[in-house]
Prior knowledge:
The protein contains 19 helices and 22 strands. By secondary structure, it is α+β, with helices and mostly antiparallel strands. It has an 8-stranded mixed sheet, with helices on both faces. It has a 5-stranded mixed beta barrel with strand order 1-2-3-5-4. A hairpin with a 2-residue loop joins strand 2 (36-43) and strand 3 (46-53).
Amino acid sequence: MNIYRTHNCGELRRSDVGKTVKLSGWVNKKRDHGSLLFVDLRDHYGITQCVVDSSGAAFQEVEKIRHECIVTIDGDVVERAPDTVNRDNSTGEIEVQIKKFTVLSHVENLPMAIGSVSDLSEETRLKYRFLDLRREQIHKNIVLRSQIISAIREKMKRSGFLEINTPILTSSSPEGARDFLVPSRLHPGQFYALPQAPQQFKQLLMVAGFDKYFQIAPCFRDEDSRADRSPGEFYQLDFEMSFVTQEDVFNTIEPVIYEIFKEFSNKTVSPYPFKRIPYDIAMLRYGCDKPDLRNPLIINEAKDIFEESTFVAFAEAVKNGAVVRAIGVVGAEKQPRSFFDKLNDWAKENELPGLGYIIFNGDEVKGPISKFLDEHRLYAIRERILASRHVTLEEIDQWGGRVGMAYSGAVFFICEQKKKAEKVSGLLRQKLGTDLGLCSDGFEFCWVTDFPMYALDERTENVKIEFYHNPFSMPQGGMEALENMDPLEIKAYQYDIVCNGIELSSGAIRNHLPELMIKAFSIAGYDEQTVKERFKGMFAAFQYGAPPHGGCAPGIDRMVMLIAEEPNIREVIAFPLNQQGQDLMMNAPSDVSDRQLKELHIKLDLPKKITLE
C-alpha cells in the first residue's frame, strides 16, 4: 500500500462517499469560515476540497499551514450539500473531512503567486519555472504536449514508419541559421555542431534502405526569439520516405495533422487534401509565404489600371518599376472617416507616404484618388477587386464604356517596388481582416509549394546567389534547369505547411543525384571539392545509389501552441530559454573554469567592455 495516498486529488466521486482515504498534494487554497477551515488540495490529477471544523484534532495544524506546502490528509469522504456542489470540478460533489493532517514539506515565502501571472515579468516566471509550472493552465499545456506527441508516435507507426534516433553531435552544415558549436577535447581546434535538423542523417537512412523513418527530433539553431519560435532548441516531427513524389508526402502527413488537431481541439479543421498554393501566387494574393486563410481578403495586381492614368504619383512609379497592389473589402464603405484616417497613419508608420483608397457606395465614388481615374478605370477596379472578376481595360472598351456599378465597398492601394509592396500589402491584409472582424475561427491549413531554388543574398557587399530554402532540394527541371535557366527563375520541389499564418513545417523532395548536387551547390558558390568535404557522408552515399526520396518536419512546439491557443511558444515548453537565449533558472549560458578551457585548447577573445567616464 502506498504510504502517501490511496487516491489522487482528481479521483474521488460520489460513489466513494463513506470511504476513509489518504490524499497527498499541495495546498492550493485555504479558506477560513470561522469554525470551519477549507483546504483545496492539489496534485497533478486535480483538486479535492478538504474540511475540518474547530473541534477537529487537526484544526490548529491546518490553521498554520501556508499555500503551496505539501501535506498528507487522512479523512472520510462525505457528500456535499446540494447548494455547495462545484460543477466545474470533477470532484465537486464530495469533500474530505480531515482526521489527520501531516506536513511533508514546508514552504518559504513564495517569490511569485501561483494563482495568477498578470503582474509577473517573464524573467520572474522563467527564473522560478518549477513554480510557474504548478499553475493550472501551463500544467495542462505540458500534459497536452505529452499527449500530442504520444498520439503522433502512434499514428506514424501505424502508417509504417520506423522511429530511429539520429546523432546530436555532428558536423556544421549550411542549413540557413547559425550553428551551436561544441569544441572537441580529443581533436584540438575542431568542433562538433548540434544539428539544426537531422537532414543529412534521414537522407542517409533512405540510402540505407529503411524506406520510412521518423523521430520526434530535437533541433538546435542559434536564432533570435519570436512569439512562435523559441531560441536555441525546438522539436519537430521529422520524417522521410523513399520512392515518393511531393503528392505522396502530402497524402501521408495530412491525415496525421488533421487527426491531431481534430482530436485535441474543439475548433473546426480544414479537411484534407489541404489547399496547394504556389509561392508566387502566395506572395501576390496574400503578401507572404505564410498565408492566414482564415482571412478572406485577397490582394490583387492593379498595375495595368494605373499605367498611363492621370494619377501621376502611381503612373510615374509604375514607369520606374513599381507594382500596384489592391485589396477590396465589401462593406468597408460603411466605416466612418476616422477608420480611413487611422489607416493612413498606419501606412506612415510602415514607411509609406499614405494609403490610397477609393470608396464605392452605389453610384457614389469617393476617396483621395478617385478623381484622378476615368470611369473605365473605376469600373475595372470595382469589377476586379470587389467582384473578383479579372477584367482588363481593353475588355471594358469593347463593352462601350460604363456598364453599371453593382458592387459597393472600399479598395485600398499600395504602390511600391515589388518586394516592399508584397510585404506591406500582406500586413495591410492582416490588419484589415483583424480590425474589421473578418477572420473566421478554426484551423485553416495549406501547402505553399514551388519555392525558388535560389535567391540573392542582399546582405553581402557584392550581391551573390544563395539557396533560398533547403540546399538539398531537387530543382524542378533537373540538370537541364540548372544548366540553362536563370538561377533566380528555377523552382524547387520545396513546400511548407502553414496553419493560420504560422509555418508548421518545411519539406522537400531531395536532390539524390551526386552530379546534380555538385551543380546545384556550384551555382551558390560552392566548388566541387568543398561539397565533397562539407557533405562527405552524403556525397559518398549518393555515389552508391540513392532512391528518390522526400519528407517534411512539422514543428511540435508550434502545433501544441496552436492547439492550446497560446500566443507565445514558451507557454507550451517546460523549460524554455528567455528572449535573450538564457536559462535564468539554471544560469545558462555561464562562465567555465580556466581548467575546462585549457582542456579544450580554447583561449577567449572577448569584446571589450565600453565604460563611460
